[in-house]
Amino acid sequence: MPKTAARAGELWKTQPDDHDFPAALDYLSLVIEPEAAARLVDALRGADTTHRKAKDLLRASRLAVLPLGNVHVQADLKKIKRRQPLSPVLLVRGNVLEADRPLQIADGYHRICASFYTDENADIPCRLVTA
Q: Is 41 helix (H, G, I), strand (E, B) or coil?
């Protein structure tokens, strides 16, 4: 796995990019009603930033790490190598224990995977809301 000499704090922006919110809405409106998706995206815009590890985000979402050769993962790894910070990820909390609903990565799956390949234990800034 590739490693980077950059510290985790240098890899991430403090605020999501503006285009991340419409991307999150596009995804969420596929898995829930569009009105509910819009409410969650509004909540994500105002949510505080928290930090989680890539390996834990993948486990909670029940998603496998994308292949190292994935074009989007490669693009983010190049950004990391050039020390261009990545945008925080947008998440909707699941309820695995009671309702068997995994964490939803509304935006940033490929960024989580690139971070995993860089350092699976590095803290990733996240906006996290509960549905």
A: helix
